[in-house]
Write a structure and sequence with these properties.
2 strands; 5 helices; DNA-binding; homodimer; about 140 residues; Multidrug-efflux Transporter Regulator, Chain: A, Domain 2
Chain lengths: ~140, ~140
DNA sequence: ACTTGACCTGGAGTCAGCTCCAAGTTGTAT
DNA sequence: ATACAACTTGGAGCTGACTCCAGGTCAAGT
C-alpha cells in the first residue's frame, strides 16, 4: 500500500499526540481510521493532511465542534457545492480579521509603552483612551 | 467619593459579567475590592481599567494565571523597576507576533482558495506545501 | 410590616479539551 | 517459551474558565 503510517508516526508528523488523535476519533472530529488485521490504526497521507488542518484551524481559535462540518468534506470536494460551508468560512474569516485587529492593537499598545514610538493604542476598548499606567517606561 | 461603581455598573462598563468579576476576585486575579458598610463591592475607575486590561490580555490568549504578575503592579508603577515583568511582556509580545503570523497565513490560505488571488499559503506548517483540497473553488 | 431588588458568601456544576490509566492483544526479538 | 514494545478499548480524572445555585443581608418603597 502507498504510504501507511502508524498512529505514532502520524503523531510525529503532525505534532498531535497519539492520545489526542484517538480522542479526536472518539469525539467524531476525525473519521474512524482504517485498521490493520491487528486492529491497529493506519493513516494515509490525506489523513495527515486532515490532522494538519485541525491544527491549523485550532490556531485560529475555532472550537473542535465547529470544525466538524469542514472536516466531513473529503479531500477534493468542491466547496462551491456546499454553500452553507462557504458561508461558515466567510464568517470565520471575519472572526480571524477581528482577532488580528485585537492583536495589532495590543502590539501597538505594548510598543507605545515600552519603546514610546508606536501610535496611540487603547486595547480595542470603546470610549476615551485609557492607558494602563504600570507599563510606563 | 469620586466615581464609585457597583459591581453591576462595573460589569456594564467592562463587558465582564458580575459573576465573572467575583470569580476573578476569588481566584486572586483581581484584588479584593473595597466594600461599603453593607459589604457591597465598590469599584473605582482604576479598577475598571484593570478589568479592561484583563479583557485585553485575554484577547491575546494569555491565561489568567499568567496575568497575575502584571495585575499586581498598581497603576502608575514603573515597569522599568520590574525587569522580570519586562522580560515577560517581551516574551508575550513575541507570542502575539507568532499568533498574528499564523492568522495571516490562514487568511492568505482562505483567500487563495476562495478568491484565487492571494499568495501561496501552507497554513504555517513545516515541510512541503500541502493544500486542503476541499476548499478548491 | 412586608416585599422587592441588588448584593453577599461558599460551594457545586458545567464545558472544552485533553491526559492518564488498567486491562487486554498482537508481533517481534531473544 | 517468554519477554517486550506497540498498539487496542473504555472509562476516569484533570485544568481552565466560567456559571449557577441556595441561603442570607440590607436598604428602599408601598
Amino acid at each position: 500500500m502507498t504510504d501507511a503510517y502508524t498512529i505514532k508516526e502520524a503523531a510525529e508528523h503532525t505534532g498531535i499526540p497519539e492520545e489526542t488523535i484517538r480522542y479526536y476519533e472518539r469525539i467524531g472530529l476525525l473519521p474512524r481510521a482504517e485498521r490493520k488485521q491487528n486492529r491497529h490504526r493506519v493513516y494515509r497521507p490525506k489523513d495527515l493532511e486532515t490532522m494538519r488542518l485541525v491544527t491549523c484551524l485550532k490556531k485560529t481559535g475555532m472550537p473542535l465542534e465547529e470544525m466538524k462540518p469542514f472536516l466531513k468534506l473529503s479531500v477534493g470536494d468542491d466547496i462551491s457545492e456546499h454553500p452553507e460551508l462557504h458561508d461558515l468560512i466567510v464568517e470565520h474569516r471575519a472572526k480571524i480579521r477581528e482577532q488580528m485587529d485585537s492583536l495589532q492593537q495590543i502590539l501597538d499598545f505594548i510598543d507605545s509603552q515600552m519603546i514610546g514610538t508606536a501610535p496611540e493604542a487603547e486595547c480595542g476598548l470603546a470610549g476615551q483612551p485609557k492607558r494602563f499606567g504600570f507599563l510606563n517606561l
